[in-house]
Amino acid sequence: MQLTSTEKIDIVNIGLMLISCCVAMVLPFELFLFSYAILGPLHYLTEISWLHDKKYYTKERYDAIILIVIGLLITLKFYDRFLELDFPEGFDANLAYIALLGSIIFVTVKNPFYRIGGIAVLVLSSQVAHNYTILFTVFLPTLIHVYFFTAIFMLYGALKSQSRFGIPSVIAMVLCPILLYVVFPDKAFYPPTDYSVNAYAPFKILNINWLMHMQGVPIQNDMPAWDKIIFHSSDGILLMRFIAFAYTYHYLNWFSKTKIIQWHNVPKLRFAAVILLWLVSIGLYITDYAMGLQWLIFLSFLHVLLEFPLNVTSIIGIGTYFKQRLFKSAQT
Q: Which tens digits make up the pLDDT trace of 142-155?
């Protein structure tokens, strides 16, 4: 059976998923911290560079400026406790709501009056996001971005390429988290090290909110109680397996498709700048994990926001594919 280059990459991706799954089962905290510090920065930098060359998948180039400004404001909100800028409660949820739904306008609407009117409606209605603050501020830039949107991107690519291994790779993406929850559910192979516990501290908000809102774990009154659940309970370890897998494969999926996406095909000076910033970022993470996280927080938010139009494009593409298939079936 002759394999196309796309099919070979799909097979490689299935292998990468299985490897990520196995390591996440054994060393979930360490895998996440490694992937976030080493693979994450290079992913942010190369994807933003690639999206720039793709005109951010929007109708107008200046749409990206709106997303960049939103990224800056969300970053300032993140540092609010240090800067004392006194942002209103839920301000970051409002911004994420505008960025996500605004991306639908950026991708689908060309008429400037409709675009301005649509954004104005989003700004005026953004208070709705306060009812879903955790969704927009915790889950959207993390697990929804690295898992759900990655699966959508893979499905869109599989439908476009018609690769024989495209849909199986999407199915593997769905099955891996299930396996992580059902295989050795009560076994922690290696407890997290003291370094891992300390380095993971800024990310605990994700685990706490997922465990409370998605798994119904009762609210704990103090952080030591949450630490025991996150790092040493069955619920905490199983969740961390999923988080580690989702982040690791999100990055590996991007790099495995270099030949298809061609993110490396950029001016040499820009590529050199990307590599330099990546090496500096790794150095900061090695020196002090919290310092590396603070150094890259803007790029982390920004690459999520700038990817929204691509996510919208992928969802529209999937819908269009199935609409055409249904139309053809109706005709025959």
A: 999 999 999 999 99
